[in-house]
Amino acid sequence: MTLPDPYRTVGSASFVEFLASVHPDRLPRADGISPLPAPHGTTIVALRTADGVVLAGDRRATMGNLIAQHDIEKVFVTDEYSVVGIAGTAGLAIELVRVFCVELEHYEKIEGMPLSLDGKANRLATLLRGNLGLAMQGLAVVPLFAGYDTARGLGRIFAYDVTGGRYEEYDFYAVGSGSVFARGSLKKLYRRDASTDDAVRIALEALYDAADDDSATGGPDLARGIFPIVGVVDEHGSRILPDTEVGPVVEAMLAARHARGEVLP
Amino acid sequence: MSVPFYVSPEQIMRDKADFARKGIARGRSVVVLQFDDGIAFVAENPSRALHKISELYDRIGFAAVGKYNEFEGLRVAGVRLADMRGYSYDRSDVTGRSLANAYAQTLGTIFTDSPKPYEVELVVAEDGVEPADDQIYRLTFDGSVADERGYVAMGGSAEPITNALRASWNPGLGLEDAVRLAVRLLSEHGDEGPRTLSPGQVEAAVLDRRRPRRTFVRLGASRLAEILDTAT
After folding, report:
1. What are the start-end ranges of the E strands in chain B?
2. Helix axes A196-213, A179-189, angle to 10 degrees
3. Is the pLDDT assigned to residue A135 strictly greater than 80?
4. What is the span of the domain harbouring residue A243?
5. Rg (CA), chain B
6. What's the mean pLDDT in A245-256?
C-alpha cells in the first residue's frame, strides 16, 4: 500500500483533526442515536499532594437500577505525566479516552515534544465539545483530568462540564453520582501537605463514603478482590497502582473504621 | 516543429538514480545497530531541533538521511499511518514490516512517476521481545527494501562505515558499547577525514526492549556525554 496523499500532506499535529479529515466515521461519535439505557460509570476523586496528584475511581457501572459491571476500569494513564478518570456513559467515555491518548502521543511524536499540561487539558475540552449533541440527549461524559505540570513542578486537576467547559480545581475535586458525598469526605480529610501515600488513603476513604450513600458507586469488594483503581502522577511520571498496593490500604481503612466503632450496636 | 530528443527509459532511470545518490552522499551519516537489549540509532546531527531519528510506534523507530523536507514528510506520514492503524485495530497490529512496505511503495512510485526522485534513504527498525525477533529494514530512494541483520549505515560515508561495522560489530554488544562504536565510526569517517564528535554533534536514541509499551527513548546530551566519557 502506498502512503495515501492525505498522509503526506502538511497538516496539524492533531490526530483527531487528521482522523476527522480522513476517516470521520472512526471518530468516537454516534450522532443521531436516541438515548438508550447504557452503562454509566460513577464516582471519580482527585486530590493534589505535596508531590503531585492522586486520582481514583470506583469499579461499578450501572444501567438504571442494575449493576452493569462490577470491575469496570474508569481511571486511565493518558501519557507520561497525566491520568484521567471518567464518569458518565461508559462506552462513549472509554472511546473518548482512547482517542485522547492517541492524540497526546501523536502530537508528541510529530512535534518531538509533549504538549503542555494546559494544552492537554484544552484538547480534552475540545473533544468533549464534539460530543455535545449526545450529551444533550443524556449520554454525557464527564472526565476528571489530572497531571503533573513539569514546567511548574506541581500536580494540577481539571474538571469539565458536559459542554466542554474546563475548570481548574485546586486541592481536590470529585465527579459522578457519588461526588457530593466524596467531596464532603475530602473536605474533612484533605491536607495540602499530604504525601502520596496519605493521599491514596484519603481518596479511598472518599470513595468509600461515596459508596456508603450512593447506590451507583461500588465499595471495595473484598470477596472478589476488586479494589478502586488509583492513579498517581508525580515528577517520576504517571502510574496505576497495582492491587497489591491498594488492597492493604483498603483493608487497613476498613479495620480502622471497624475499630472506630462504625459497627452498629 | 521541434522533435523532442528520444531518451531511453534505461537512461532516464540511471539519471534519476545518479541524481538521488549524489544528494544522499552529501548528507552526514546515520548508523543503526542492534545491541543486547534493543536497537540503537546514532546520527551525526548538530541540530537539536531537526531530528533524523524518530519514534514511529511502540516498538518501531525511524532514521533517515538526505533531504530534510522529504524525509520529514515521510516520517510524519509514517506516524499517521501507525497511529491510524493502532487506533482503528489494535496496538499490536502495527508492525515494522507494514510500515517498511508502505515506505517502499511510496518511494517506488515517486521514483518512477515524478521527474525528481526523493533524495533520501530510510531505516525502519522494530525491536522484538528477543534479539532474534529484531527487524531492520533499509529503504533506498527507488523503493528497494533490504532486510538487514545487525547493523546498517546510511549517508555520505555509508560504505566505509559498513565495512568497519562488519569487522567490529558483534551480536552481544551492550548499549554503551554500541553507541560508542557508532560514534567512533562516525567520527573516523567524516567528509573531510577523521575528527572527534562531541555529544552536541550527535543525535542518538534507542528502542529498549525491556521498557513497557513505548520502547523508544532519546539519549539526551547528558546521557550521551556520560556514555562517551567512559570511553576514554
Report:
1. 30-35, 38-44, 53-57, 60-66, 120-126, 135-139, 145-148, 151-154, 202-208, 216-219
2. 140
3. no
4. 36-259
5. 18
6. 95
CB A58 within 8 A of CB A228: yes
pLDDT at A55: 98
pLDDT of residue B3: 76
pLDDT band with cut points at 50, 70 and 90 for residue B138: very high
What is the CA angle A212-A215-A221, rounded to 5?
A: 65
- Given A8, A19, A109, which is nearest B77 (Cβ)? A8
- The verdict on ipTM greater than 0.85 is yes
Question: Mean pLDDT lowest for which of A64-68, A204-208, B54-58, B97-101?
Answer: A64-68
Which residues of A are catalytic, by number?
Answer: 42
Contact between A3 and B87 using a beta-carbon 8 Å cutoff: no
Distance from CA of B88 to the nearest CA of A (A): 7
Beta-bridge mates of residue A49: none
Q: Does residue A21 belong to any structural domain of this protein?
A: no
Distance between CA atoms of residues A55 and A176, nearest Å: 13
User: Is residue A155 scored above 80 in pLDDT?
Assistant: yes
Is A27 a member of any domain? no
B47-71 pLDDT, tens digit per residue, is 888 999 999 999 999 999 999 999 9
Nearest residue on chain B to A9, alpha-carbon basis: B73
Enumerate the residues of chain B whose CB falls inside 8 A of the CB of residue A2. 102, 105-106, 109
A window 37-66, beta carbon within 8 A of B: none
B49 and A112 within 8 Å at the Cβ level: the answer is yes
Domain membership of residue A25 (yes or no) is no
Strands B151-154 and B60-66: unpaired
Phi/psi-derived region of residue A104, left when phi > 0, alpha when psi is between -120 and 50, beta in every other case:
alpha
CA pair distance B226, A150, nearest whole angstrom: 24
Domain of A58, CATH number, reads 3.60.20.10
pLDDT at A24 over 60: yes
Fold of B26-228: Glutamine Phosphoribosylpyrophosphate, subunit 1, domain 1 (3.60.20)
- Using the predicted structure, report yes or no on whether residue B231 has a pLDDT greater than 60: no
Nearest-Cα distance to chain A for B118, in Å, is: 13
User: With 80 as the cut, is the pLDDT of residue A259 above it?
Assistant: yes
* pLDDT of A32 over the 70 cut: no
Domain tally for chain A? Answer: 1
Measured CA to CA, the distance from residue B61 to residue B46 in angstroms comes to 20
